[in-house]
Amino acid sequence: MTKVVRVKSPGGVEQFEVAEVELPPPGADEVRIRQTAIGVNFVDIYQRAGLYPMPPANIPGVEGVGVVAAVGANVTSVGVGDRVAYAGAPVGAYAVERNLPAWRLVKLRDALSDEVVASSFVKGITAHMLLDRIYPVASGTTLLVHSAAGGVGQLLTRWASHRGAVVIGTVGSEAKAAIARQAGAQHVIVGRDADFAAAVADITAKRGVDVAYDGVGGTTLAKTFGCVRPFGVVASIGQAAGPIPPVDVSDLGPRRSLSLARPSVMAYMNEVAAYRSAAEAVLGGIEDGILHVSGQSYPFSEAARAHADLEAGRSSGALYLKP
To answer: What is the pLDDT of residues 273-312, one digit of tens each?
Structure first.
């Protein structure tokens, strides 16, 4: 038996319940891990709400850190007692113990703490996808990062700044502006109702940014189109503020000549080579001090509170559960 947090039916945080379920021995090519920290991400909220489907067990979550407790047949890549991290499918991270495909697990070096990795792994892989595959960010690139004090926002800002890019961040308060600046944002636009398109025009002398990352959704995405230079890229990576209205292709071009990307980090992590490359880059960046994000811990039984705080914008940085 193991303890899990599962969803009774799609909806709000009141649909969470803590339960005990039977956990079979790991099968061939599988590993059982005893989790020590579980990352909380917006994708978990989408799963809980029913926007993204879950397996029948209705246990959300896509990343965790822990210790190998048992291995199935054919597994040679890890052994009992190894510290490991994982990200991606199969969904079901909100569990004290769980079984996973062995190829998902990445061994952790002693210098990497469970809490830091759980705060940064999926978010760092998301940043890697955005900075390397969606638009190659390098010295001289100018980018716009919405919610720059959030978990993904901080890592995007830190990594892009380390590469020599110019980061313009948007945040909802002066307190979050300080976090974004500490992460390396050279320009910060403050206020939920700020005219960020006009501010970006002023900062870039009306040129616009090369690439913009929008995890806010709602009506923000359409406004973000006005921030990007011709032949630039807009990456829509979430909808924290609500569903995104339909996009008219004429909003992208020909006048603006924009490319719109709607990438899925889950799809990215299903590519074995991309997953391995991104995982090593993220863990190396954490170890080198390039990538780190403030973390906030919640007891395992308080997953509902963690979700409520994340949805309401009461948190900055990254959230994780402690079994």
So the answer is: 999 999 999 999 999 999 987 778 999 999 999 999 998 8
Rounded to whole angstroms, how far apart are CA atoms 36 and 118? Answer: 9
DSSP SS3 for 127: helix
d(CA 76, CA 84): 14
How far, rounded to the nearest angstrom, does the alpha carbon of residue 295 sit from its chain's CA centroid?
A: 13
Q: Are 139 and 167 within 8 A, CB to CB?
A: no
| pLDDT tens-digit map of 46-90 | 999 998 889 999 999 999 999 999 999 999 999 999 999 999 999
Average pLDDT over residues 24-51: 96
In the chain, CATH 3.90.180.10 covers 2-120+288-322
For the question of whether the overall pTM of this predicted structure is more than 0.90, the answer is yes
| Residue 94 contacts residue 126 (beta carbons within 8 Å) | no
- For the chain, residues classed under CATH 3.40.50.720 are 139-261
Distances (CA, A) of 200 to 131, 145, 230, 240, 260: 20, 11, 14, 22, 19
Q: Does domain 2-120+288-322 have CATH number 3.90.180.10?
A: yes
What is the per-residue pLDDT for 314? 83
Sheet order of strands, 187-190 included: 187-190, 166-171, 142-145, 209-214, 228-236, 259-261
Residue 192 pLDDT level (bands cut at 50, 70, 90): confident
Q: Measuring CA to CA, which residue among 190, 145, 186, 155 is closest to residue 172? A: 190
Element (H, E) at 42: helix 42-49
CATH number 3.40.50.720 given to 139-261: yes
Task: Supply the DSSP symbol for 150.
Answer: B
Strands 16-21 and 228-236 turn out to be unpaired
> Do residues 32 and 105 lie in contact, with contact meaning Cβ atoms separated by under 8 Å?
no
Q: What is the DSSP letter of 105?
A: -
Half-sphere exposure of 282 (CA within 13 A, CB side): 34
